[in-house]
Amino acid sequence: MARRYDSRTTIFSPEGRLYQIEYAMEAISHAGTVLGVLAKDGIVLAAEKKVTGKLLDLSGVKDGGYGGSGEKIFLLNSNVIGGVAGITADANSLVNYARTAAQKHLFLYNEDIPVELLAQRLCDLKQGYTQYGGLRPFGVSLLYAGYDPHYKFQLYHSDPSGNYSGWKATCIGANNGTAQSLLKQEYKDDISIDDAIDLVLRVMSKTMDSTTLGSEKLEFATLTLDPTTKTPKARIYRPAEVDALLQKQGLGKKEEDAEMKTS
Amino acid sequence: MDVSFALTGKGYVLIAADTTAAHSIIKVKSDEDKIKELSSHLLMAYSGEPGTSSILLYTAFAEYVERNIRLYQIRNLYPLRPSSAASWVRRSLADSLRSRKPYSVNLLLGGYDTTTYTPHLYWMDHLGTLVEVPFAAHGYGSYFSLSLLDRYHDPEAPLEEGLATLRRCIAEVTKRLVVAQPKYKVKIVDKDGVREVEL
């Protein structure tokens, strides 16, 4: 009897709660952390990869293909990067939906989809699963880092219930409470992209389980404006670039480790 | 027999259209406003393709566009930018062209992009051709006015100079065209939005 209000997404419990939605959000808080920081001249996204191991074949990931370098950061449109936390299979489906929605907008209006509109499209879909019969909602939270001419650089977050909100800096996934409070302390308005990169990596290194950061555990992306064309430029870092960046920031593996590898 | 002109200047777009509503060979109205205000910073002049369409048909298309542009604004809290609106209208017209009964309507879209602070003018014909232009005209008036616009148009001209060029065009059409239209309505769109101006 205790499970009476758990089994269907569309049934309220007597206290007025939708348990399946809350369980979906719980699933997300065990997923790898995704962190986003809005700067005045760009946005930074970083994510912690959970599926790692010596035997995992990463040869396809090495070149960081068109869509991104792995499991958590994806290019949704030329002006929006998405970071996902939650059930990877659900996330893939949502990423696919987002890309289609963005292309539909391009077809109809001959412009890149405004960031908030893309977030709304996905939230409409996610909200649908809290009302119409299906087994479960999407167990995915997303961060959208994007640019459009209306509101310039923007960072949005959406959760399984279909709620979305705009942020200056935010975090989803495991340890998001710790990361949020760190961000709250350290974030300043008018932060530059370089300071934002520094902030993201510092917070990331504090929230992640492992002591040293490396490309096998970390995904990284930035969105800036191209200085000549003034169009948004999404850059999802390749594993080698992530390592180079960490080395530059003094957070990477020690030099001797690298030497050991090559010898 | 509709005549419409438009030109850009320093931070504005001017659009002029005659005010005659004709049904076949009969003039049914002489004070028809054929420039729709699609949003706070977007104007659209519409006219029929001579001989093929009635005012009823192309005002129907103009109203369809007007309501859909408004719907986008209500849903998304900000209006479409001129370039996106023009692309959407072109798409609608192109879809209509490939239907059983196409709207034979020619359009001039003038808007002020509030995100980049620039005026834009688009010329579109009933076949769905869309071009961004510095000045434009539709109907028989175009045969008399395009050469004048080519000679006198200046993209950096202040409003008074733009209006003077427009007056030249209208004077020429009135003088030379057999089926000349007596009255014109002129509207402007700039950073302050759309409004009517006196010639």
TrEMBL record, chain A:
An example Gene Ontology CC term for this record: proteasome core complex, alpha-subunit complex
Cellular localisation: Cytoplasm; Nucleus
Recorded superkingdom: Eukaryota
Main localization category: cytoplasm
Domain Proteasome alpha-type subunits: 5-27
UniProt xrefs under Pfam families: Proteasome, Proteasome_A_N
InterPro entries: Ntn_hydrolases_N (IPR029055), Proteasome_alpha (IPR050115), Proteasome_alpha-type (IPR023332), Proteasome_asu_N (IPR000426), Proteasome_sua/b (IPR001353)
One BP annotation, GO: ubiquitin-dependent protein catabolic process
Keywords (A to Z) from UniProt: Cytoplasm, Nucleus, Proteasome
Keyword Oxidoreductase: no
Keyword Cytoplasm: yes
NCBIfam families in alphabetical order: PRK03996.1
Function in brief: The proteasome is a multicatalytic proteinase complex which is characterized by its ability to cleave peptides with Arg, Phe, Tyr, Leu, and Glu adjacent to the leaving group at neutral or slightly basic pH. The proteasome has an ATP-dependent proteolytic activity.
Record-stated family: Belongs to the peptidase T1A family.
Assembly, per entry: The 26S proteasome consists of a 20S proteasome core and two 19S regulatory subunits.
Annotated protein name in UniProt: Proteasome subunit alpha type
Organism expressing this protein natively: Antrodiella citrinella
From TrEMBL, chain B:
Keyword presence, Phosphoprotein: no
Cited PROSITE patterns: PROTEASOME_BETA_2
Similarity remark: Belongs to the peptidase T1B family.
Gene Ontology biological process terms, A to Z: proteasomal protein catabolic process
Residue ranges of coiled coil: none
UniProt key word Cytoplasm: yes
UniProt cross-references to PANTHER family, sorted A to Z: PROTEASOME SUBUNIT ALPHA/BETA
Quaternary assembly: The 26S proteasome consists of a 20S proteasome core and two 19S regulatory subunits. The 20S proteasome core is composed of 28 subunits that are arranged in four stacked rings, resulting in a barrel-shaped structure. The two end rings are each formed by seven alpha subunits, and the two central rings are each formed by seven beta subunits. The catalytic chamber with the active sites is on the inside of the barrel. Component of the proteasome complex.
Alphabetized UniProt keyword annotations: Cytoplasm, Nucleus, Proteasome
Function: Component of the proteasome, a multicatalytic proteinase complex which is characterized by its ability to cleave peptides with Arg, Phe, Tyr, Leu, and Glu adjacent to the leaving group at neutral or slightly basic pH. The proteasome has an ATP-dependent proteolytic activity.
InterPro entries: Ntn_hydrolases_N (IPR029055), Proteasome_alpha (IPR050115), Proteasome_beta2 (IPR035206), Proteasome_sua/b (IPR001353), Proteasome_suB-type (IPR023333)
Pfam families recorded: Proteasome
UniProt protein name: Proteasome subunit beta
Subcellular location: Cytoplasm; Nucleus
Domain of life: Eukaryota
Record's GO cellular component terms: cytoplasm; nucleus; proteasome core complex, beta-subunit complex
